[in-house]
Amino acid sequence: MNDVKIELFDNPKPARNYTIKIDCPEFTSLCPKTGQPDFGTITVEYCPDKSCIELKSLKFYMQSFRNKGVFYEALTNEILDYLSTACLPRWMKITSVFTPRGGITTEVTAEYKQ
Question: What predicted TM-score, i.e. pTM, was given to this entire model?
């Protein structure tokens, strides 16, 4: 469980469907096998319902993974579970794109629908 609390603010247009896209291009975590750092971009896309995610708290949440050993697939789903539980969007998609390691790139996408 993550100790960083995501802060929210009221959706200024709750009657309208619209998309918020947030890129976190300086994401880092650790490989659970080697302990070496993994670098990537996490993209959060969502249609807010009653609440929107406050960006400073999202930044601190993303930084909390810097010393955590986690596989890409688990990481992407963990972020989706945490953020979708925090803000209860109409839908949300998390895409994790990691820099090449050993000549292989990895992209993982997970989605939530209300």
Answer: 0.94
